[in-house]
Amino acid sequence: MTVRGAREGDLGQLHDIDRLIFTDDAYPYFVLRQLLEVHGERFLILEHERELTGYAMLATTPDNQRHGWVLGLGVVPQARGNGYGRLLMHKAIERLAADEVAEVRLSVEPNNEVALNLYRSLHFTTVEPRQAYFGPGHDRLILARKLG
Fold first, then answer.
1. Tell me, what CATH number does 35's domain have?
2. Residues in contact with 128: Cβ distance below 8 Å, sequence separation at least 6, in sequence order
3. What pTM was computed for the model?
4. Which of 19, 33, 54, 63 could staple 26 via S-S, CB 3.0–4.6 A?
């Protein structure tokens, strides 16, 4: 397993696995393209034998409080249960800490117990529930972890 920065050549495969993982909630190709352009060094790829196995998309906010966000985290279904999500989150936290981020935030589906268990084991706590965060019927919990 290798975690590396995303490259333009990864976009097609990244789009395919994002659709596999998140189906109707997957990012459109053009959004992935723009996220790579804007946040390239914060777009992490998990690769196994030249196959994209997972990813973490990160961003920082342009404020003085230096917040970071995990915009997306995913591992292909056949590779789950091997600690790859945890590995990606550790690398994401390291990357955002290098950017001197004071706090990392993310959103998660309230009923996604696997993701909630992972994030809580990494010391994320619930900041607030958000109704219709991604539109009607798409409630989320906002979690955060202080860095430094």
1. 3.40.630.30
2. 141, 142
3. 0.92
4. 19
